[in-house]
Specification:
By secondary structure, the chain is an alpha+beta fold. Helix content is about 30%, strand content about 35%.
Length: about 160
């Protein structure tokens, strides 16, 4: 999905719970791997994305907490979609790397919130666009944080 169509689709569908569910399903159709965490988009705007992942058996590890890689998936999804709706149409992006920090066990459902670290990025020059993602538990406590290095460059 292109920036404008992604944001337009969100605007059309986000007013109701079924619409947000449908938006999440459509994103997972475009990028099927994210279906493994059954994400639900809660908020989306340029420079901001919030994705919820419900604690359920499919995302648990052997000790019954949300698996670290499930949180990595949520972070990459939130960071990628936030980047998609933030960059100008003349620019493309791809994740280049991600550093993560596991802060505590995620014993509840989690929410990933993505924001750019440098909102004043120069889109005319190819470079790394760092995106910060905070993952919190149901009580709002940070359980995980990530910085995703998005490589952005002008479209050819």
């Amino acid at each position: 999905m292109a920036k404008q169509s992604t944001l337009n689709l969100w605007t059309r569908l986000s007013g109701t719970a079924p619409g947000r569910w449908l938006f999440s399903q459509l994103l997972c159709f475009k990028a099927p791997y994210f279906r493994s965490i059954a994400p639900r988009f809660k908020e989306l705007a340029p420079g901001h994305c919030v994705v919820h992942v419900r604690k359920r058996r499919a995302v648990l590890n052997h000790i019954g907490t949300v698996h670290a890689i499930a949180m990595c998936n949520a972070a990459e999804l939130a960071g990628g979609v936030m980047t998609e709706v933030t960059i100008p149409d003349s620019v493309r992006w791809i994740p280049r790397g991600m550093t993560v920090e596991y802060l505590k066990k995620a014993t509840t459902s989690v929410t990933a919130t993505a924001r750019p670290m440098n909102p004043a990025f120069d889109w005319a020059v190819a470079g790394e666009y760092p995106v910060e993602v905070a993952v919190t538990d149901a009580g709002g406590e940070a359980v995980f944080k990530a910085v995703i290095a998005m490589w952005v460059s002008p479209k050819k």
